[in-house]
Design brief:
Length: 490
C-alpha cells in the first residue's frame, strides 16, 4: 500500500487528504481540516499565508502520527492568480493580497490603455478578470509599491507553500497560466507584453510541468517534523487543473464542470482556442495536465448560495443546506432569474438582498422566502451552464454529448438534476473530492505508479461512486431558457 498526502486549499478552508493506493484502487481519507479566513487590515484584504503553512505542517504531523510516516510524496493545489513576493534572501515580503481585495480596481482599463485588450488576449488566451495576477502586479507598479521594488522572486500560492517546504523556487504550468502573463502557445512568460507594461521580469522563475517531482522536504522542515526528506510533487497546482485530472471520463468527447465556490465549465484541448469570437465570449484558455489547454468559462458558482446561507446564519435564521434545497424543490419553478456573473454578486455580504434587488431592477417577480431565493439561484446556475455549453460547442465545432460534474457541487442533487434538464443531455457527477483526487493521481503519475492519465481516470472511475442524471421536462426548460436570456439582456 502506497501512502501519499494531498493538500487542497480552497477559498474558505483547507484539507490534508491521505491517499492509499494498492495498484488498482485509490482510497481517500481526510486527516486534517482547517479554516482559511482572509484578514482585513485597514482597507486591504490579505491571505494569512503563514497560518496556512503552519496548518500544512500540522497535517504532515497528523499523517505521520497516524502510522503513515512513510509517505511516498506530497502535493499541493490552491486557487489561482494570487502570489507572494520574496526578497533577495528568500524572505517573504508581506502577506499576499486576496483576489477579492480592491487594489485592482480600474487596473484593466489602465493596462488596456498601454496594450489593447485584444492584443493581450491574443497572446495569453486568458479571460479578463479584475483579479488576474497581471492586474495585481500592475497595480503594485502603478501605486509604486515598495514591496515590488524590493522583490526578487514572485511565487504563486501553491508554489510559495512548496517553497516553504523545500526551499526550491519554481512556477508550475497550470497555476502560472491563470496569471494572464503566460504565452498560451509557447507556455512561457509573455516577455514582450510584460516589457510594454513595465513589469519586472527578474522576479519570474522557470516554469515546470504538472507532474514534476520538484524537490523534497528541506532538512530543517524534515527535522522539525521528525520525518524523512519526502519528495514534493508539483501536481496540477491550480485546483481546477487538479479537478479536471479527476474527471472519470470514458467518452471521447465531453464537457466538464468543476463545481464549488466557482463554477468552471469547459473542455480539454491539445491547443488553445484564441480568436475574436472567443474574446467576445470572454472564455479562457488555462493550462492543463500533459500541457493541454482547458478552454472554459469562469462562472460565479455556489459562492452566491453559500453567502446567502452565511447571511441567514448570522442573522439567527440558520437553516441547513438540506432544508433549503428541500424547500426550493417544492417552490414554484421559473418565477425569476439572476445573472450569476453580475458584478453585484462578487463581493460578500447581504447576498439575499442582492438577489432580490437584481430581480427588482430587471422587472421580475421578487423571491421573498429562503426557498424561493434558493430556487431562483439554482435555476439561474443551470441556465448559465446551458448558455456556456452551447457557446463552447460553437467555438470548438462539435457537440458535447455529456457533462461531467466534479467537486463539492456534486452533493447538490437538485442542481445536478436542474443542469441535466437545462442542457438536455446526461449529467454524470463524481468524484466529490475532485481536487484532492486529481492531486493524488498526479503524484502517482509522477512516481511512475500509474502509466498514463487515461489509466489514472479508469482507476478513479473504479474507486469512487458516480451518479447519472437524465434530462426531464424539456419543453418547460426550453421555454424558461428563452426568458432567462431576455432577463440577461435587460
Amino acid at each position: 500500500m502506497l501512502n501519499l498526502l494531498a493538500f487542497d486549499y480552497g477559498a474558505s478552508s483547507g484539507r490534508a487528504m491521505l491517499g492509499k493506493f494498492d495498484g488498482n484502487r485509490l482510497e481517500l481519507s481526510e486527516i486534517h481540516r482547517f479554516a482559511n479566513e482572509p484578514v482585513m487590515v485597514g482597507d486591504s484584504l490579505y491571505w494569512d499565508i503563514l497560518r496556512l503553512f503552519h496548518e500544512m505542517k500540522q497535517g504532515i504531523l497528523k499523517c505521520a502520527a497516524g502510522g503513515c510516516k512513510d509517505m511516498a510524496s506530497i502535493g499541493i493545489d490552491t486557487w489561482g492568480v494570487d502570489f507572494g513576493l520574496l526578497d533577495s534572501a528568500g524572505k517573504l515580503l508581506g502577506n499576499p493580497y486576496h483576489y477579492r481585495d480592491g487594489n485592482t480596481g480600474g487596473m484593466i482599463e489602465e493596462v488596456c490603455r498601454i496594450v489593447p485588450g485584444r492584443e493581450i488576449y491574443a497572446r495569453t488566451g486568458i479571460a479578463f478578470q479584475v483579479f488576474n495576477s497581471l492586474y495585481q502586479i500592475f497595480s503594485m507598479k502603478f501605486y509604486k509599491s515598495p514591496l515590488l521594488e524590493k522583490a526578487s522572486t514572485m511565487l504563486f500560492t501553491p508554489d510559495l507553500l512548496r517553497y516553504f517546504l523545500t526551499g526550491e523556487k519554481s512556477c508550475e504550468y497550470t497555476i502560472a497560466s491563470t496569471s494572464q502573463m503566460l504565452d498560451a502557445y509557447t507556455r512561457t512568460w509573455a516577455v514582450d507584453l510584460l516589457d510594454k507594461l513595465g513589469i519586472p521580469q527578474n522576479i519570474l522563475t522557470g516554469i515546470i510541468d504538472a507532474g514534476t517531482i520538484a524537490g523534497k522536504l528541506a532538512s530543517g522542515v524534515a527535522g522539525e517534523l521528525g520525518i524523512g526528506q519526502i519528495p514534493v510533487v508539483a501536481v496540477a497546482e491550480h485546483d481546477t487543473g487538479s479537478a479536471v485530472v479527476s474527471v472519470p471520463a470514458v467518452e471521447g468527447r465531453y464537457a466538464f464542470l468543476s463545481s464549488g465556490t466557482w463554477s468552471l465549465l469547459g473542455v480539454e484541448s491539445a491547443v488553445p482556442f484564441i480568436n475574436d469570437s472567443i474574446f467576445n465570449l470572454n472564455y479562457t484558455n488555462e493550462g492543463g495536465y500533459n500541457k493541454t489547454t482547458r478552454l472554459l468559462k469562469n462562472i460565479m458558482g455556489l459562492w452566491i448560495y453559500q453567502e446567502c446561507k452565511r447571511t441567514w446564519d448570522k442573522s439567527g435564521e440558520a437553516v441547513s443546506f438540506d432544508e433549503l434545497e428541500q424547500g426550493a424543490a417544492n417552490s414554484e419553478a421559473f418565477t425569476s432569474f439572476i445573472d450569476p456573473d453580475d458584478s453585484s454578486f462578487f463581493s460578500p455580504g447581504k447576498m439575499p438582498v442582492k438577489v432580490q434587488e437584481y430581480c427588482r431592477k430587471t422587472g421580475q417577480k421578487i423571491p421573498e422566502t429562503k426557498p424561493q431565493i434558493v430556487r431562483c439561484i439554482m435555476e439561474s446556475f443551470a441556465m448559465t451552464y446551458r448558455e456556456t455549453l452551447e457557446g463552447l460547442e460553437k467555438v470548438i465545432g462539435y457537440t458535447l454529448p455529456v457533462l461531467h460534474i466534479v467537486g463539492g457541487g456534486c452533493k447538490n442533487t437538485m442542481l445536478s438534476q436542474f443542469t441535466a434538464n437545462a442542457i438536455s443531455r446526461p449529467v454524470i457527477t463524481g468524484p466529490v473530492e475532485a481536487t484532492a483526487t486529481g492531486n493524488l493521481m498526479a503524484q502517482l503519475l509522477a512516481l511512475g505508479e500509474v502509466k498514463s492519465l487515461n489509466e489514472g481516470r479508469l482507476i478513479i472511475r473504479g474507486s469512487f461512486p458516480t451518479a447519472e442524471y437524465s434530462p426531464e421536462n424539456k419543453a418547460g426548460w426550453d421555454a424558461a431558457y428563452e426568458r432567462f436570456l431576455n432577463v440577461r439582456k435587460r
